[in-house]
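BUG: 3D viewer hangs when loading the predicted structure for this chain

Environment: internal workstation, default settings.
Expected: structure renders.
Actual: progress bar stalls at 90%.

Input used:
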Amino acid sequence: MEIKKASNRHYGIDDSGKEQGEVTFSERNDHTIVIDHTYVEEEARGTGLAEQLVDSVVQEVKRQNKKIVPACPFVAALFKKKAEYREVQA
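Structure tokens produced before the viewer hung:
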């Protein structure tokens, strides 16, 4: 699975070129983004794609010295589970 980045979303493309999932976010201000949605196609569920997508956003936000508001329930649960994400939580 290849993770691609676009304006306000990261998405996963499988080997056939089909989009299998996405995580979307919006800018709250110059220093904070809000992750508001995570979706994975039925056939890609259980593969860890959603977590890979969130991790991709987290890594980018770290590089930009920004913070994240985890508004999506899946992302909020992941932030509670993964201590290393807490440093970017707003």
